[in-house]
Amino acid sequence: MSAPTLVIGEALVDIVSTGTKTTRNGNGKPKTTPGGSPANVAVGLARLGVPTELVTRFGTDPYGDQLGAHLFGNGVQLSPGSVEPGFRTSTATATLDAAGVASYQFDITWEPPALSLSRGCPAVHTGSIATVLEPGATAIRDFLKTLVDQPVTVTLDPNARPTITPDPVSTWAAVRELAALSDLVKLSDEDCEFLQPGQSPESIAVELLSAPRTQCVVITRGGEGALGISREGRIDVTAPKIDVVDTVGAGDSFMAALIAGLNGQDLLGATRLAGLTSQSLQTVVDYAVKAAAITCTRHGADPPTAAEHAATWGA
């Protein structure tokens, strides 16, 4: 069995509300679902058939038990130290607007266990709160610096959270530093507008591609699809028309499918995206857009399996 892809970042529980009303389950308690962008990516990868290990931290409280059951149940391997007795599991209150678009308020502590690279690991993915919230952000940045000469592909999804880092200038500086240590960077159009207001996604991509290591930038555009810009050129993918239930976890499903698609084309590991053509990028981004579309047709961060993706859109 091949070594797992390593995902680093927060795992937390989403408490879902609509407007000022918290969604309740059948027992009258707040509706809670496992979440956290990196954890969602790990689950998405595992469901798409990619062996995955998650470095995170949560407790053995009821929220932590819910997270553990979700991750193990989806085949995600947890790194040693990720579950800590006595640690209070982090939460996010997700508020849905009338269109099903989520905004978040966080109650989170982030300090990962020791980070290390397993022999044969094809890719390391990180992003979101884990890359900006101290002390864990420094630990991730220092770890990525050790991978400069390692035969592994690094992917980054900053997934900007203005409620955590309200200053776009300092946040962009942190993103630039991490992006320069990454082979592929994925952003949303909302990330772009927060981090570099007034700048076009294309110009942001070009700026990130000025770093020697960065080979590709992919920018999602919600219902309009996504664009990918590499050293070979630019591609655009249109999103399929769907009935949106909510957008929770859609970006994470996209990221997982992007990594899985690159893995399927043997572009990860020591190759570090060498050989990524415009045609292969088009194929991979199309696969990711369609995975995100499936997630948007159901409640919460519920990424598709490989079988569901094939059944919906064809092999």
Automatic annotation (TrEMBL):
Coiled coil: none
Domain of life: Bacteria
Biased composition (Low complexity): 19-33
Region (Disordered) location: 19-38
Keywords, alphabetical: ATP-binding, Kinase, Nucleotide-binding, Transferase
MF (Gene Ontology): ATP binding; kinase activity
Carbohydrate kinase PfkB domain ranges (all copies): 6-304
Transmembrane segments: none
One matching Pfam family: PfkB
Family label: Belongs to the carbohydrate kinase PfkB family.
PANTHER family in UniProt: HEXOKINASE FAMILY MEMBER, PSEUDOURIDINE KINASE-RELATED
Record-given protein name: Carbohydrate kinase
Organism whose genome encodes this protein: Kribbella albertanoniae
